[in-house]
Amino acid sequence: MVLVDGFVDRWKEKPQQPSFLSKIKDAGKPSVSLKKQISTVLQRLDVQKQKLNNAQSRFEQRDSTLFKRTVKALSERDTMRANVLAGELAEIRKVEKMLMHASLALESVSLRLNTVSELGDVVTVLAPAAGVLNNIRAGMADIFPEAGRELENIGTLLTDIVSTTHQDTGMTVNTGTASLEAEKILEEAETAAEQKLKAQLPEIATTAPTQKRTVVET
């Protein structure tokens, strides 16, 4: 009976133990907990991007209305009213640009966070991302306070993740490099926002259209 049991035991599937090589390869990968934290950050960023896009849509509608009213005032040679409307339109477009800039920057941050597959990435990716969020948050404070507060919270969470990773692994954060990378992300987003707005928003003519004279043939 003992011999039979021993024979059966040898054929039972034994749990596979990780090899020494796989242990070395896995040592540099983020833990399940860290991945879950990053996943949470990505979900919260997606919510904020959607809110920014919704706010931008509302301002675009206001933009369209003001543009038509400005063109109408110019066509009627009501220069004073046209200037007032054009000034208001210019302020609306500043907000539109800020919202689009923020949305594109968040998209860039999300793309970078999705690439985190090694522990070294946590420091090189998350540190600049936190800087980007802090910069956007400052701009959102006046026009979108709710988004500003949430971006501040997400930025704090990213900073905490970087700090914890530093304590656990001893990896240092190069603040200079992180700041430069954050500036690069913001500059790319600003350029993209300018190009996108320029392509989709019509410009206002500075002068009223001249009326054509009708020539009467005799």
What do these coordinates show?
With 218 residues, the chain is an all-alpha fold. It has a domain at 41-54 and 98-200. It contains 7 helices and no strands. The radius of gyration is 28 Å and the shape is elongated.
**How would you classify the helix and strand content by structural class?**
mainly alpha
Order of helices and strands: HHHHHHH
Share in helix: over 70%
Query: What is the number of helical segments per DSSP (H or I, 4+ residues)?
Result: 7
> Overall pLDDT, averaged?
78
Question: How large a portion of the residues is in β-strands, by DSSP E?
Answer: under 5%
Could you give the count of β-strands? Answer: 0
Low-confidence stretches: 10-15, 17-28, 207-218
Quaternary arrangement of the chains shown?
Answer: single chain
Alpha-carbon distance between the two ends? 127 Å
Specify the overall morphology.
elongated
Global Rg: 28 Å
| Most strands sheet | none
Short description:
The protein is mainly alpha-helical. Helix content is 79%, strand content 0%.
Which descriptors would you attach to this protein?
disordered C terminus; 218 residues; 0% strand
Which helices and strands occur, and which strands form pairs?
Elements: H1 2-11, H2 20-27, H3 32-75, H4 79-113, H5 119-143, H6 145-169, H7 175-200
Helix pairs in contact: 3-4, 3-6, 4-5, 4-7, 5-6, 5-7
